[in-house]
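Retry 2 of 3 after timeout on previous attempt. Resubmitting structure tokens to design endpoint.
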């Protein structure tokens, strides 16, 4: 299981320091939650923050665009230094175009589904994406309680991936801790986003707890 700390729960006054801490913990990628105050009721980071952090980290930057009409911002985030760009299925009527734009910029493309969206809604897009993100909370804020009923979607995506020979990673985001990550791994998730759990203490210690939990699940 790959670990992707979310800087939504980091110290905004010391983002570089917190990014360095998780990088030293040898995480797999950095999850950057981009919110516009319209698609979700919160405001966070723009491409300028991504650009500011990029020279200070070698991590894969996983930019999750929780914004309306994300196709209007794909180029800006790609140019700012994003490696993987995620777009919400529910945020645009041009979802295929948005994903195609990401691929044409040479970036990894991710499709994201909210708790109320079934896997069937994105079935025609799975062949073109590098990652699928299943939201295990309603998007917009950190620190929410994990929704175990979303694990059925993870299992469904894992089955489709195996049957079709697709290559996408299956990511979960929301309420992930050293207990819920076990359920996610068992269902077939391959990447876990964790924010509040990682940054509530020493990130290195918290990341190791997540790793150990997935190792225990595999035994």
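Retry 2 succeeded. Sequence:
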């Amino acid at each position: 299981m790959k670990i992707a700390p979310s800087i939504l729960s980091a110290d905004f006054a010391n983002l570089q320091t917190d990014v360095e801490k998780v990088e030293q913990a040898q995480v797999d990628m950095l999850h950057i939650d981009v919110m516009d105050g319209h698609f979700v009721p919160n405001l966070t980071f723009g491409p300028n923050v991504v650009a500011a952090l990029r020279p200070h980290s070698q991590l894969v930057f996983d930019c999750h665009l929780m914004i309306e009409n994300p196709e209007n911002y794909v180029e800006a985030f790609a140019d700012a230094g994003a490696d993987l760009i995620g777009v919400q299925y529910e945020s645009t009527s041009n979802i295929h175009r948005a994903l195609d734009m990401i691929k044409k910029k040479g970036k990894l493309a991710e499709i994201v589904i909210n708790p109320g969206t079934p896997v069937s809604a994105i079935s025609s897009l799975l062949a073109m994406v590098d990652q699928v993100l299943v939201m295990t909370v309603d998007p917009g804020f950190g620190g929410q309680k994990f929704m175990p009923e979303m694990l059925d979607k993870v299992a469904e995506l894992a089955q489709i991936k195996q049957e079709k020979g697709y290559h996408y990673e299956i990511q979960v985001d929301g309420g992930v801790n050293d207990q819920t990550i076990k359920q996610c791994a068992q269902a077939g998730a391959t990447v876990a986003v964790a924010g509040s759990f990682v940054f509530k203490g020493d990130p290195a210690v918290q990341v190791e707890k997540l790793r150990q939990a997935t190792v225990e699940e595999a035994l």
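Attempt log closed. The longest helix spans residues 203-218.
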